[in-house]
Structures are given as structure tokens and as C-alpha cells.
Design goal:
- This protein has seven helices and two strands.
- With about 220 residues, it is mostly helical.
- It has one domain.
- The radius of gyration is 18 Å and the shape is globular.
- About 35% of the residues are buried.
């Protein structure tokens, strides 16, 4: 039986997947999207914090990086839409530094994995470290651009919110369907099948980004 933090992590992750699916399905800005979205936010924040804390105790560097990146993505996605009345610039600067730290750590551990005799770091190969590290550095670069511009507006604001939420959902889906494949019945324990919902998140992210950036509906 999992410990309380472990059970909380599993419960929050399950809720996040369901709520995230509802937010993706619902009309953007509609009632279903907003209610599912806020449930997704709280569930993801709990899931990422508990996951990173549990991984730090093992230790398991990749899960710590994934948890920190997920927390950062969800928080900055929310702040893009619901900005505080004061101190927003300092919050943005702090978030950028978090992303920069996560990105550097991801690349560092990726190179550690490459140099090790087993080709892994804490049991994981280098590519996932490089993927998370690169995404974090890209996000930090975009944060710097927002700081220089004094904010983000219009379709770019919605796009920033959208891709960060979707990539956080992608991390959660990959962790559940691919990282915990052993919990599924043997009949459907097929990596190709389990990868479908994971990459469906990326497909929907690209679809909605196209609608936001290249149509008049969200202008």
C-alpha cells in the first residue's frame, strides 16, 4: 500500500488526467473549459509537488526535473491568464530563473547519463533528460522575451497559456500511460497502444495552437 504522499500523488494525477481531458474537449473560455481547467491546475500542482518530493527521496533525478517543470508550466500558464495586480514582473523573473535552473539541470544529468558506463542516470537514459531540459530552456527564453516586451497580449497570450498547460498534461499522461505501463492488464500492455493518449495530447496542442494563432476566432 502506498504511503499518504504516494496515494495523494496517484489521486491527484488521476484527477488531473480526467480534468485535463475535459479542458481540452470543452470550448475554450466556456464553462466546461474553465471549471475543468481550474480542477486540472490544483490537481497538477499537488501531483507535481508530491511526485518531485517522493523522487528526491529515492533519489530519481528525472522525476524531480519532470515534477519541477510541470509545476512551473502550470503556474506560468495560470499567471498568463490571471495576473496579480502587483509584483507581476518579479514573479515572471522568478519563474524564468526556475525554468533556467531546471533546464540546466536536465542537460547536466543528460550528459551524466551519456558518460556513465550504463548509459543511464538513476535508471533512465539520456534523451528524457535532454527533452525536459530543452523544453525548460525554451520556456525560460520565452519568459525573457515577455519580460523585455513588458507582457504578452492577444493570440500570443492564449498560445502561451495553451502550450504550457498542454505540455504539463503531456508529462502527466506519459508518466501514467508509459511510466506505469505495468499497472495495465497484460492484454493491453502494448507500448504502441499506451502511447496513443500521450501523443493525442500533443496533437490537440498543435491543433488548438493553430486555431488560436492562425484564425480570427480568438483575436
Amino acid at each position: 500500500m502506498p504511503s499518504f504522499p504516494g496515494a495523494l500523488h496517484i489521486a491527484a494525477g488521476s484527477i488531473a488526467l480526467v480534468a485535463g481531458a475535459g479542458a481540452l474537449y470543452g470550448v475554450k473560455g466556456g464553462k466546461l473549459h474553465c471549471k475543468s481547467g481550474m480542477l486540472f491546475v490544483w490537481a497538477m500542482l499537488i501531483m507535481s509537488v508530491t511526485g518531485a518530493a517522493l523522487a528526491a527521496l529515492k533519489p530519481e533525478a528525472l522525476s524531480v526535473i519532470a515534477g519541477a517543470l510541470t509545476f512551473y508550466l502550470v503556474m506560468t500558464a495560470v499567471l498568463t491568464i490571471r495576473r496579480p495586480a502587483a509584483g507581476a514582473r518579479w514573479i515572471d523573473l522568478g519563474a524564468m530563473l526556475v525554468a533556467l535552473t531546471v533546464g540546466i539541470a536536465g542537460l547536466y544529468f543528460g550528459f551524466e547519463a551519456l558518460k556513465s558506463t550504463s548509459g543511464t542516470k538513476d535508471g533512465f537514459p539520456a534523451p528524457p533528460y535532454f527533452i525536459f531540459g530543452t523544453v525548460a530552456l525554451l520556456a525560460a527564453l520565452l519568459d525573457w522575451r515577455v519580460l523585455r516586451m513588458g507582457g504578452v497580449h492577444g493570440p500570443q497570450r492564449l498560445a502561451r497559456h495553451l502550450w504550457r498547460m498542454c505540455f504539463a498534461l503531456f508529462i502527466a499522461a506519459a508518466s501514467f500511460f508509459l511510466g506505469q505501463a505495468e499497472v495495465f492488464p497484460e492484454q493491453i500492455r502494448n507500448l504502441a497502444m499506451l502511447a496513443v493518449p500521450v501523443f493525442l495530447v500533443l496533437f490537440l496542442m498543435v491543433y488548438w495552437l493553430g486555431r488560436v494563432l492562425f484564425t480570427q476566432r480568438y483575436r
